[in-house]
Every structure is written in C-alpha cells, then in structure tokens.
Model the fold of this input.
Amino acid sequence: MRRITIALLALTALLSGCYRGQPTEKPPIHIISDMDEQPKFEAQDYTTFFPNEAVMRVPPAGTLAREWLRGDSAFYTGLDPTTLQPIVQAPVNVTLSGLEQGQGRFNIFCAPCHGRTGDGQGIVAQRGYIPPPTFHSDVMRGYSDGHLFQVITNGIRTMPGYAQQIPVVDRWRIVTYVRALQRSQRASRQDVPEDALRRLQRK
Ligand code: HEC
Done:
C-alpha cells in the first residue's frame, strides 16, 4: 500500500511538472527544435563583426530597388528636369483606351468630390466637404498637364494627394481625361464630326 502511495505521489509530481499553461520563467522544453533556433542576425541587430557594429548593410552607392529605376523624371514627377517647372503636355500617348482608363479612374477617385463632369458638385462636396473649384474656368483650362499631375500626386491646399492610390501612368491618364472633360464642356459646332452633326440635326 505504501509503495503504491509513493508511486502515485511521484507520478502526480511528474505530471504536474508537465502541466501546460503553467507560468514559468524558464525557456520551454523543446525536444525537437527543427530549425526554430538558428545562429542568425535579425534586422537592427548589433554585431562586432562589422566596423560600424550594425548588422544591416548600407547598399552600395547607386543601388536601386527592382522596378524603381525612374530615369524619366518628367514622367514620374511632372516637372521638367532642367527648369523644374511643370511640363506642358502629358508624356503619354492619348488613345481611346487610355482615355477610357482615365475616365474609370477619374470616376472612382476624383468624381466623389469634383463631380463626374468636373463641375465641383460631387456628392462629398454636396455633403459638406470644402467645395472644389470647377475644372471649366479659364484658370483651370490654363493649367499645364504637369500641374494637374502634381495636384493628383501631392494634393494641394485642402485637397489630399493620391500618389498612394493611383499609379503614375493612371495619374497621367486622368490628366488627359480631365482635358477631354474640359473640351466637352466648351465644345463648338466644329468639334462635332459631320455624321454625328447630321444625326443630331435630324432629331
Ligand atoms: C476629397 C475630395 C477631393 C478629391 C477626391 C479630389 N479632389 Fe481635387 N480638389 C479638392 C478640393 C477641396 C480642391 C480645392 C483645393 C483648395 O484650393 O484648397 C481641389 C482642387 C483641385 C484642383 C485645382 C488645383 C489648383 O491648382 O487650384 C485640381 C486640378 C484637382 N483638384 C484635381 C483632382 C483630381 C484629378 C482628382 C482625382 C485624382 C481630385 N482632384 C480628387 C477636393 C478633392
């Protein structure tokens, strides 16, 4: 009987030692460590191996992250690389599919405030946001494409920037679409193709 009691007590002690969830200061028992523990450095670590005692290495001068070669600075900034003034014309070919892409992006990102026609009467403006100016004033029409690109990229005064949401090429497509909107609001008879004019006159 005594032996059984001792054995039971020993077993209880043993099992309680393995009780999961019990707080302990000691590192967990790790019988098969797989590759959990490796001799390696982690980001921001300290080392005596390198003279500056930092584990992280400074990339050699001129190193660029993949796909970050931005040699065509006018395309990426909207500024002339020598004068640093906004470029007059968007550095993209204006095609119908490009304009349609610009229209889609404009209707998603700009129309909520500026309205689908660019009159500044978007739903957000109607509900109390600072009303944006119409795109159809002489001042707006006089802006260079580079200026519009800069506004989309960096924002201006009370308008937030959209560089994070809109890729560079789409920003240019939006610019060309804004130009199309501006033309559409001040089109003359000469802007309507002959066959379309005939169709309109028949109605
Ligand atoms: C959150 C609302 C909002 C959105 C979205 C928005 N804008 Fe604006 N935008 C404004 C406001 C407000 C102003 C007036 C800024 C000021 O003068 O304080 C403005 C001004 C402008 C101007 C005039 C800049 C100048 O030099 O006076 C342009 C051009 C413009 N926006 C283009 C765009 C385009 C293109 C988009 C889409 C990519 C866009 N905005 C998205 C609110 C918005």
Observations:
- The pocket of heme C is lined by residues 109-110, 112-114, 124, 129-130, 132-133, 148, 151-152, 156-159, 162, 174, 178 (CB under 6 Å).
- The chain has a mean pLDDT of 90.
